[in-house]
Amino acid sequence: MRLLKITMLSLFFLTTYSSYSQNIGDFTSVTPASQTDQFVIPSTHKFQKIIETGDPLTAGGNFKVKPDFTAYVPISGSSTNGYLSINSEGSILTDGGGGVQILDINFNATTKLWETTASEDLNFAAVGGTAANCSGTVTSWGTVISCEEVAYNEGGTGLTDFNFDGYNDVGWNIEINPATKTVIGKHWAMGNFKHENVAIHSNNRTVYQGADDTVGHGFLYKFVATNAQDLSAGNLYVFSGSKSGVGSWILINDSTNPSHQLPAHRNITNSLSKAAGATVFEGIEDVEIGPDGMIYFAVKGAPDQRVYRFSDSDPLEASASTVTMETFVGGMSYDINDGVSTTSVAWGGGNDNLAFDGDGNLWVLQDDNSGSKQFYIWVVKNGHTQVSPQVELFGITPHDAEPTGITFTPDYKYLFMSFMAPNPTNVANQSDAAGNIVNFDKGTSLVIALSGNLGSSLSTDDRQFDKAYTFYPNPVNSSRELIIKGEDINNVKLYSILGKKILDIDYSDLSEVKLNLSDIQSGLYLFKVNDKETSKLVIN
């Protein structure tokens, strides 16, 4: 008996420790499947909707269409108080351009929910407007780089010179200050092409970036700024070499023909890169620097359709550096185990946004470029190799929703991302961590975390409510009428045992409520009065 007690006590401490030491990248893969109206993630995690297309902004206007890069910018390094900078990849022709909206957000430690206290759509008039704001990065100096994924002449001649000053107004990297809600400027020296994302080296001068372009114009670039934390001037290089071996950087010299001058046909950066013999990739999406110091970048189209990585012997390019490149993940199938069975799943194409979590796992968001309509959220575990794969499937987005984003809080407890252009007929009827019903029928920005870190947990203990409230009978008898008594009853909520909200009824300071449950199926439920302690209810 003594040995049994010791064993049970050990198991208790092991279970308790494991639950508190779990990180956001610890989960069992979801079952590979086609999209439904719902957002499918592991049962160990929750999501909370932050904002969706059409929601009013506090500074006026509404949240825009096609939310993309969802950048959490901490205030003084905080993981619970910061700015959420959200790009809008709006088209020049159909959506009125693009934009960036800034939300002041903070985490409420009592409710374990994120709250928005202010929201504003930035004004880009001073830099000739903006369009197709795709991904970007958060700088170490507290600003955000927003990338315009649009090239000259897209949509017709003249549509990229908004202010008619003779210069191309789109296809740039734009730096903004989320704290002051101002636009710092467009960085001409970083090149003009379909910018998707940038990754800034710890030296605060070197920037790796790619052109999200196909038909022979998808190139990999390195920009070395003249001064640290100042991207307004520097040298631009393009990669040339093997995709599975050694290559080098070639200086793009456009000093005699500034790249922001309207070119005759396509943008000048791409033309110079092609002439220099740059290596072509079929649409470079995201670029990230890993904790191992290597540079990772996603390529969406065939024949690439994978995430590459490379080492750069001289990030500052003071002398000729050597680039050694290899495939990190993709181009093959991986075994996904959902805890019950194992399925071999082809990686496919559409490799898009990337981000590393605190354990060194690489999160890969996949859009529909391959035509497979997987729209998966992959997690490539730290230690993965193509010979010994460690790939897991974290999520499947709602119908047609492209997963975009993605950033973490500094403590890696919270992941911010968005869904772009979901099917407008989606009816997910899915409850988030705040108890709000989300249908995912429009662009949506959200936060994801372990269940214990987001929203109040629904307790299944058999304890009664706060003594201010009583309820009977339990189990509910054949009349299916539950009587609740107490002072100032303002709200009653009923949940399934899995946390789906069934009822949410408001009252006006009543002392007794009779809740008719005749339409509710038999089973075990959880309910709250005035959002106080949750109690268990059995319906026969």
The first-level CATH class name of the largest domain: Mainly Beta
Return the CATH topology of the largest domain: Methylamine Dehydrogenase, Chain H
Helix content: under 10%
* Structural class by helix and strand composition: mainly beta
- Under the CATH scheme, which architecture of the largest domain would be assigned? 7 Propeller
Signal peptide: 1-21
Pfam families: PhoX, Por_Secre_tail
Keywords: Signal
Protein name: DUF839 domain-containing protein
Structure, described:
The protein has two helices and 34 strands. By secondary structure, the chain is mainly β. It has two domains: 49-453, YVTN repeat-like/Quinoprotein amine dehydrogenase (Methylamine Dehydrogenase, Chain H, 7 Propeller), CATH 2.130.10.10; 469-539, Immunoglobulin-like. It has a nine-stranded antiparallel β-sheet. Strands 30, 31, 32, 33 and 34 form a five-stranded antiparallel β-sheet that branches. Strands 1-29-26-25 form a four-stranded antiparallel β-sheet, with no helix packed on it. A hairpin with a 5-residue loop joins strand 6 and strand 7 (144-148). InterPro entries: PhoX, Quino_amine_DH_bsu, Secre_tail. Keywords: Signal. Residues 1-21 form the signal peptide.
